[in-house]
Design goal:
- The protein is mainly alpha-helical.
- It folds into two domains: about 80 residues, DNA polymerase, domain 1 (Orthogonal Bundle), CATH 1.10.150; about 160 residues, Intergrase catalytic core (hpI Integrase, Chain A), CATH 1.10.443.10.
- It is about 65% helix and about 5% strand.
- Strands 1-2-3 form a three-stranded antiparallel β-sheet.
- Helix 10 packs across helix 12 and helix 11 packs across helix 12.
- The radius of gyration is 28 Å and the shape is flat.
- The termini are far apart.
Length: about 325
């Protein structure tokens, strides 16, 4: 198994250019499957059949594994066996006919524009770290970049005059994103007043920590949470939430789905489609609230009219007496 797995990982690195974390997940999933086959079925991976694969997936489902994790495992094992068929190790894959469970589609959470303003304004622009944080928050919302993309930015990635940023996304693919005027302004201030105060050498990273080294993704996560608390936001806030908000607000403003897809770096429009559901859900909620308010006003008006009629009748009866 180790020999087959190493060959598969080399193929993934060469052909798919996957991240180290994704490769680690693939390896973990496949080793778990191989151990099951050996311990429960008594066969190596090259002798597995469809019923064995079904029993394995059934065991995972009974254990309470989340649908998303189960779907990932099916995809990983299927990809592995396709590689083995391609390499001539097998004639067919044992996962033929096995369909991965459908993922539950959860609509992304987003921040309102008011919450975003409060989050960004919470950065203290009197310190180098505050200038950096303000620039990062502005940029994450203004361009919709991923966490890994923003920490991977270098000085040469930015063209402030053109308000463009070249980011390296999933699969090592490059794309260009745009900056608004507020993000351009905060980046310019950070580059002139913040970064030079912590830069110590030839580090080319755009965003630096206090030691003058490239800022880590973990540090950015902590920074976002800290500023969310400082802004008094009740919603749990993490970096990807700004990306969700960026995409939804663009669609709310009338941007075309294809344009948003390109800005986000999605390979498929289906991935971007989820944000149209968010927009539709927000529209339904706005309509529901409007109808609720109209209904309350109608009931209130009818109640007041009935009360006035009652008072009028009471006055008329008093006159008659």
């Amino acid at each position: 198994m180790e020999e087959l797995l190493e060959a598969y990982v080399r193929y993934l690195v060469a052909e798919k250019n996957l991240s180290p974390l994704t490769l680690r997940n693939y390896r973990s999933d496949l080793l778990h499957f191989a151990r099951y086959l050996e311990d429960e079925e008594g066969v190596p991976v090259l002798e597995a059949d469809r019923m064995m694969a079904r029993r394995y997936l059934g065991m995972l489902k009974e254990s309470g594994m989340a649908t998303a994790s189960l779907t990932r495992k099916v995809s990983t094992i299927r990809s592995f066996y396709r590689f083995l068929v391609r390499e001539g190790k097998l004639d067919s894959t044992p996962l033929t006919g096995i369909v991965a469970p459908k993922r539950e589609q959860k609509l992304p959470t987003i921040l309102s524009k008011g919450d975003l303003d409060a989050l960004i304004e919470s950065a203290d622009e009197t310190t180098p770290s505050g200038l950096r944080n303000r620039a990062m928050l502005e940029m994450m919302y203004a361009s919709g970049v991923r966490l890994s993309e923003i920490v991977g930015l270098n000085l040469r990635s930015i063209d402030l005059e053109e308000r463009t940023v070249v980011v390296r996304g999933k699969g090592n693919k490059e794309r260009m994103v745009l900056l608004g005027e507020p993000a351009k302004r905060t980046l310019r201030i950070y580059l002139s007043q913040g970064r030079p105060r912590v830069a110590t050498g030839a580090e080319e990273a755009l965003f630096l920590n206090r030691d003058g080294n490239r800022l880590s993704g973990r540090s950015v996560q902590k920074m976002v949470r800290k500023h969310a608390l400082r802004a008094g936001l009740e919603t749990h806030v993490w970096p990807h939430l700004l990306r969700h908000s960026f995409a939804t607000h663009l669609l709310d403003g009338g941007a075309e789905l294809r344009v948003v897809q390109e800005l986000l770096g999605h390979a498929s429009a289906q991935t971007t489609q989820i944000y149209t559901h968010v927009t539709a859900a927000r529209q339904r909620e706005t309509l529901r609230q409007a109808l609720g308010q109209a209904k309350e006003k109608l009931i209130r008006d009818l109640s007041e009219k009935a009360q006035r009629r009652g008072e009028k009748k009471e006055r008329e009866r008093a006159k008659g007496r």
